[in-house]
Predict the 3D structure of the following.
Amino acid sequence: MKKNLVISIFNHNPDWIKFLNDDIKIFLYRKGGEKQRSDEIILEPNVGRDVHTFFKHICLNYESLSDITFFCQDYPFDHWENALETLNGDLNTINKNAASFKTTFGTTAPKYMGRSETPYFLKSKYQVCVPPKVNGRQLNC
């Protein structure tokens, strides 16, 4: 199972990623300001909060999404206390611990989404089934 982690960075340094397993591919998107790490991707302008970052990642990587992609802010522990356990875990751990996006999107969390009511969530590539188009028009990513 391939896992990706997409982090929307604004004003925290995500040093906590050093505790993640090597099998997780990490995408660091910084909104506003200068790069603080060589592996950061700068997104300008700084619009749309973290959800904009997550959508941008899906649009840019639609054809090559990993089996599971986690999305979170630069310091997830205020809302997602078991983030490291979930991220480093197997599918059973992910199902048990992963945070849903119910409060963000107002819908029941699908399978693999977990039970917590926070804006931190994950999607399997099979759940991202709608191509980046709305009403037949290509979305600008």
